[in-house]
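Pasting as-is:
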Amino acid sequence: MFSQAVSFLLETVEFVIVYPALLRFYLQVMRAPARNPISNFVIAITDFAVKPLRKLVPGMNGMDVASLLWAWLAETLLLLLFLSVGGGKIFSAGAFVLPAIMFLAFVRLLQFSVRLLIFVVIVQALISWLSPYHPMRPVFDALTSRFLRPIQRVLPTLGGVDLSPLVLFVVCQLLLMIPLGILENTAMQMLAHG
């Protein structure tokens, strides 16, 4: 019961630390409008780690590498804590455990990125249907347009309804199930044999 409570707390910390760091990275990469409540909130809760990292790791080609690095380091640390709380003898394991955990953290960031895209697409679709002039719409459009536009070129609207969010949702689910599922299984096997 104690380990379940600690795991729940670690999952909450993961949600509060890793997802905002990833979102900060994607907001900058996708050139989302900087002056909005989402960006302000994300910056406020990630600045404590990202600003010091920027002194060590500068941006590259318009990408906020420090935000991505912070997400990866935080996920690696949280995985170490998850595995140690879960009864694993992580600190007495072989030399390949840390690289396996780092690889698993990378895979989980890819999974979180796809889940984040799913969430943003759903919100963007709801906003476009219910309140097309909502002030937050440009942020969600910036985060989704690079993914939806290629689908929209191929798939015509049916009865005035854009089905590209549904197609993207299906593609994202397949990504989570097949290639990212295989990568996660590979990382878990590395951990088991490390």
